[in-house]
Structures are given as structure tokens and as C-alpha cells.
Amino acid sequence: MNQYFKVIRYEEALQLLTESLPPRRTVCLPLTACTGRRLSHAVISPESLPAFNRSSVDGYALKAADTYGASESLPAVLDFQGEILMGEGTALKLGPGQCAWVPTGGALPEECDAIVMVEYTERIDETTVLIYRPVSPGENIMFTGEDALAGKVLFEAGHTIRTVDIGILAALGLSELMVEAPYRVGVISSGDELVAIDQKPEIGQVRDINLYTITAELQDLGATVTPYPRIPDQYDALNRVLHQACAENDLVFLSGGSSVGVKDMSLEVMLGLPDARLLFHGLAVKPGKPTLAVEAMGCL
Predict the structure, then answer these.
(1) Contacts of 3 (CB under 8 A, 6+ apart)
(2) Residue 256's pLDDT is what?
(3) CA–CA separation, 115 vs 249, rounded Å?
(4) Rounded CA gap, 177 and 161, in Å?
(5) On the CB side of 69, how many CA atoms lie within 13 Å of its CA?
(6) 36's torsion region: left (phi>0), alpha (psi -120 to 50) or beta?
(7) Among candidate residues 133, 132, 127, 90, the one with its CA nearest the CA of residue 112
(8) How far is CA 224 from its chain centroid?
(9) 8 Å CB contact between 185 and 252
């Protein structure tokens, strides 16, 4: 106990805890279960996305140069060559002064380098389309590989999967991912004064709220939490449950018994665990000064 009150700053304690965290286990999960999970390996794009040049608007595919100078008073006049159907490729090849109808997401004909939105056009007969505004090369086109290039890193290891990431992963055909498993965390409350929350406390007793607040906080962080039965201030009982919790979890939170009272035996029990190493005992925060951390049995 001679290391008690060797108080350290919160930042130093956090660094010690971070360095002592056990390695994460890796699991393979379906894509629908990966939101909020951290990737254990980098994700390499298996293909390019889009896989072909496609239109981002409903309109007419054409050569941008054919629209230069077009205006409402002096529209460009182009020859209509046909319609590209949604979900199909096309062998259509546009020449100078020619255009073809293409829907949003549709594949583009060869020699097309821009799309003019339908709002700026007028189909006046079966063979003629008027263009009322100019477009630049590449305008309204999504080019092959614009979202993802085959063989390139899409997400680095450690990236937390967001809901916005799920769409592109699904578009690439990735139905499952290798992600970090959540930490398994045991939570133990100790103290003769504790009673269940559905029990009326007597004088000198309090309801065990720490078990619930710590569990809720850990679950909010994504951990898999196992609450253990309340332990009285008895060395053997605490030693037995703590051994069990350390064997079953990656991390164990023990609430109570960390000060210097006659019945404060948490440190003694922790240091009795196999391969125990005291990280710190005493934290420069209030309340919480008696906080301690021990690494033992491959568990923190």
C-alpha cells in the first residue's frame, strides 16, 4: 500500500491505461452489423466504382464543343441519334453535331464528353434537339473509378465504419468485413453498505447505482458488458469473483474498496492476481482520488 497517494494527473493515467489495453480480437461480421465498428484490416476496393462512365442527370449526351455559344436566343441544333436505356450498355458512337438521350445513371455512348440537363433542351421533332446553354467537358458525368479505384485502399485499418460508408461498401459487393470485436468488460460492485436498487436502504446503506451507471457508460461505448453479483467487504469473496471476471473478460471495472480504510482491500486482492502489475494508485481528480489500475492475467 506504500504507493497509495502517489497521485498522478489524469492525462498520465490515460496514457498508462491506453498502453496497457489488451489487443483487440478480430471478428468477421455481415455488413449490416458493422456500423460503429473499427476495421481490423484495411479495405481494398475490389473494383472501380462507378464501373463505367455514366450520367449524373437526365439529359442529352453530346460533345461539349457542340454547345459552345448556345443560348436561349441562339440555341445549338443537334441531330438526335437515339435513346440509351437504363441498366443497359450501348454501342452508340456520337459524331460532331450529334446527341443521344441518357437517363440519370445511364451508360454513356462513345465520344461523349458532357451531358446537358433536359431542363436546358427542347426536342422539336424525331431528329432534332435544341440546346439552350453550353456545357464544359466532363460536366454532369461520373467517370469510371470516381468513387473508388480497383486495388486502392478505400478505408485504412482502424477506421470506424459510419452509416455513410455502408452504401459504397455495398456498391462494391462487400457483404462482410473484418472488424475489431468489442471489448468484453466485467463490472463488479463491492461494499457492505450496498443493496439492490429495488430494495429500501436501511440507515447506513445505499442502493448500488455504480453497477448500472458504469454498465450503461460502457455499453454506450460499444463494449460487451457482464455485470457480476455485488460483493461484501470480504477478501475471499472478492478474490473469487475477481479471478472469475479477469478470466472471462478483457477489462474489469471494480467499484469500491480502493481507499485506505480497514475494509478497503481492492488493491491487495488485485495485486494477488497472477502477473499483477500496479499501473497507478491515486488520481488527481475530485471525486475519484483513490482510483487505481492494475494489469494482471492478461486483463486490465
Answers:
(1) 278, 281, 282
(2) 79
(3) 58
(4) 10
(5) 5
(6) left
(7) 90
(8) 17
(9) yes
CB within 8 Å of 84: residues ≥ 6 apart: 61, 90, 92, 100, 101, 102, 103, 106, 107, 108, 109
**For position 262, what pLDDT does the model report?**
40
For the beta carbon of residue 237, count every other beta carbon within 10 angstroms: 15
pTM: 0.67
Residue type, 152: K
- Residue 109's Cβ-count burial label (10 Å; 0-12, 13-18, 19+) is buried
Contact by Cβ (8 Å): 233, 257: yes
Residue ranges in 131-284 assigned as alpha helix (H): 163-171, 210-220, 235-248, 266-271
What is the three-class DSSP state of 127?
coil
Residue type, 153: V
Matching residue, cell 449490416: 32
Which positions of the chain have pLDDT values less than 50? 1-3, 261-262
89: amino acid identity, one letter = G
CB 266 within 8 A of CB 289: no
Q: How would you classify residue 257: left for phi > 0, otherwise alpha for psi between -120 and 50, otherwise beta? A: left
pLDDT on residue 44: 96
Secondary structure of residue 241 in the 3-state scheme = helix
Task: Let me know the angle formed at the C-alpha of 66 by 106 and 64, rounded to the nearest 5 degrees.
Answer: 50
The b-or-e profile of 137-157 (16+ CB within 10 A means b, else e) is: eebbbbeebebbeeeeebbee
| 134: Cβ contacts below 8 Å, ≥ 6 apart | 64, 67, 68, 69, 70, 76
**Beta-carbon contacts of residue 34 (< 8 Å; ≥ 6 apart):** 161, 166, 177, 179
CA nearest 194: which of 129, 249, 263, 133?
263
